[in-house]
Each structure stands twice: as structure tokens, then as C-alpha cells.
Amino acid sequence: xxxxxxxxxxxxxxxxxxxxxxxxxxxxxxxxxxxxxxxxxxxxxxxxxxxxxxxxxxxxxxxxxxxxxxxxxxxxxxxxxxxxxxxxxxxxxxxxxxxxxxxxxxxxxxxxxxxxxxxxxxxxxxxxxxxxxxxxxxxxxxxxxxxxxxxxxxxxxxxxxxxxxxxxxxxxxxxxxxxxxxxxxxxxxxxxxxxxxxxxxxxxxxxxxxxxxxxxxxxxxxxxxxxxxxxxxxxxxxxxxxxxxxxxxxxxxxxxxxxxxxxxxxxxxxxxxxxxxxxxxxxxxxxxxxxxxxxxxxxxxxxxxxxxxxxxxxxxxxxxxxxxxxxxxxxxxxxxxxxxxxxxxxxxxxxxxxxxxxxxxxxxxxxxxxxxxxxxxxxxxxxxxxxxxxxxxxxxxxxxxxxxxxxxxxxxxxxxxxxxxxxxxxxxxxxxxxxxxxxxxxxxxxxxxxxxxxxxxxxxxxxxxxxxxxxxxxxxxx
Length: 478
Ligand code: BGP
Hints:
- The protein is α/β, with parallel strands linked by helices.
- It is 37% helix and 14% strand.
- The chain has a single domain (8-241, 287-314, 359-376, 410-471), classed as Glycosidases (TIM Barrel, Alpha-Beta Barrel).
- The protein binds 6-O-phosphono-beta-D-galactopyranose.
């Protein structure tokens, strides 16, 4: 057997992209609740006030809030051992600033975790997946405000204590490294006070963004430290958006540029979260980019004391880095890059690179030597129903098969891999475009970009295929 016994096969979601019920049972608005839908040609917009004629896809999403029993039963039928989901901070603290948590919000996640346990599914919970309370944007300019660290600590203490018997695996921030580049501003660092405009902010402010990121890194470390002190059976992980980059050519200038890109985009946050200190290369980057991070006494000690137990990441695609600005560009998750002539792309222009996953797993494990988990992977595609009324998504099966094969290679290379939770195991709202049409799921949801659809769930071919993969612990990928 390639995959170890107890391997955590499952799927991944995020509250803001699938729960809906955005203002039900006391929930407050979070950043994505203020974001309109878009497409891969027209960007999503952030609005300060809700606009009457705009569509806000998180408001209903696929309404997991009222379908959780049915959905978790479907995950169980596929054989899931693990389910990655996030808690919507604004269900627990509607503005982030209350003294007391919202009981109805807490009770909802009790029901969800109980349902998972009933089916023998281990929850893997992201504490903050692009879900900052919007009130904290208005009051503190998002994570730029140091006060937000305290709000986050309060939230963590409440959920740790409440769910201590139901949840053991935690991730602090989804794709925290998105704070190292401009496209991460809206959803990650959320320094968008007073901002109305497109998803890719027009006036990026790296000084603010890195200050906000510092606060997130401190908040993450404090949460990990607190969990370790009070709940020794918790396992605390980080979560990185891994944007694998190859030099476009073997010209040393391309190679060095790629190395610098890898350092600040892919390694910087995890060097802090796994090794417990700002890496030396970041000093030069900050000097050259005129970034001055304000720290308070104790910050460096917190970073040192709050290192994670396991490393998790998303992997969808790879890109190339070139010093030649005329090279053709390719789309990608959060960032564009130079197009790799050896790879094909998805409908949204993300380059499909299964071998890049083996390469990436080896690189990460060589660097840190702690257990790894792939907590997002998948292909966003247009799904059309066939004449028989079913979705025959052989392209999705191909994508997943090739990536699982390469994970198997990495395990044989000696990488310690805990599990695999492909993204959007059930169709949900796209984070970057706000579309429903960009589907990742093995379960189809009757919900469309114009907001119509009866929300009914249907199994795609990939549902049955993944069921077989799990039941054979990854041996039968046919
Ligand atoms: C990751 C995010 C997810 C998810 C995924 C797919 O970066 O963590 O929230 O959405 O990407 O991206 P998209 O939805 O833009 O296709």
C-alpha cells in the first residue's frame, strides 16, 4: 500500500463559499458578504454598502446551513475520513468585538460536528478562511489594526473550549501567504477600509499589507501556543497557497528571480510558522521595498513559541518565472505567471501540473520535516448534463487521478503525508470570481450564476470514482 493506514481522505470547503444563511440566527457580515459576483473576465467588486441590484453569492451560496445533514451523509457515502471546513467568525462574534459569543452560531457548529462524528468523519477546521468580520474592516482597517489580534484570540478561545471534544485538527489562517502579494489584500489581510472596487485592489499598499500580515502571524502563533498549553491533544496546522514556480529558462537570471519569488511568496510565512522566526532573506526584501514592520515587545517570542505541528497547503497549478516581460502569460490561482509550453490549462487558464505536486511535496518536506497534508486540489470546470441527465466529468477524474498518483510517488519518496482533501468536494461559490459555473465538486448543486436553482444535490461520475479510490486506500485509481 502506498498510502499509510489511517490516511485522511476527504474533501474541503469554506464557510463563506457554501454555508449561505449570511444573516441568519444572528450572523454578522464578513468581508465576502460585501463582494459581488463576477466572472473570469469581469472581476468581483467589494462594496461598502450592499447594492440593491447586485448579486452577492455568499448570501445564499449552496445553503449548507440548511442542508448540512444531507451533505455530510453524501460525504460519508463517498467514504470520507475527514472533512475540511471553516467556522464563520461572524456566526460566533457578529462584529468580532462583542464580549459574549452568539449561542445560535455556536450551536450550529455543534450540530455539524456531531453529524460528522456520527458518520465517523474527522473534522479539520480552518479558523479563518477569508471571513474577517466586516465591522473589523470598518473599525480597524482589517488586520492593519493590532487590536484585531485580541479579537481573534477571544474567538479562538471560545471555539477551542466549546468544541474541544469534537475537533482535534485545526488550521489557523487559510492561505496566509496571500498577504505577501497584492491580490491577497481583499480576502486575506482585508486592509480595505472605505474601499469600493475590484477584487484586485487598485492601489496596493505593501507597507500596510505586510504590517497586517505580521499581525496575522502573531495571532496565528498565539492561537497555536494557547492550544498547545490548554489542549494537548489538539494538532495545530498552518495553511499555505503553494504557487509552485519554475524558472522559464535555465538562464541564471531566471533561476535567481524564481528563487526570490519562491522565498517571499511560498516560503516566507511557513518559515515563520514552522521555524518560528522571520527568515533572513525577508530583511533584504523589506529594505528594498521600503517596508518597516512595527513590532511590539513579545512578538518575536510569540512567533518562536507558536510553531505548528503540521503543514498544509493548496495546490492547483504551477507557473513559470521569467525576466523577459514579453513572454506569454498564463492565469493561475491568485497570481499570473509565464506560460509553461509543456503544460495544458483548465477552462480558467490554470496550468495543470500533477508532477509539480510531487516536486512540491518533496521540496516542502525536505525543508521542514513535519507531516504534510494537501488540503486543496482540484479543477474548476464547466459541467454540462449529458442526454441521460447526468454529469460525466471524466476531465475531473483525470485531474484528480493524476494528482493522487503523484502524491503516491511522493509518499514513496519518503514524504510524510497525512491526508488529502480536494477542494470543493461539493460545488460551491468560486473565491476569485464569485461564480457557480466554476465547479469543483463531486456532488453537483443545482445553483447558477444568476442566483436561480433549486439547490438539489446530484452525484457526478467523480463521486463514484472517488468512493472507489477511498475504499481501496488509493490503490484503485482506474
Ligand atoms: C483557494 C482558496 C479557496 C478556493 C480555491 C479555488 O485559493 O483557498 O477558497 O476558492 O482557491 O479558487 P477559486 O474558487 O477562485 O477557483
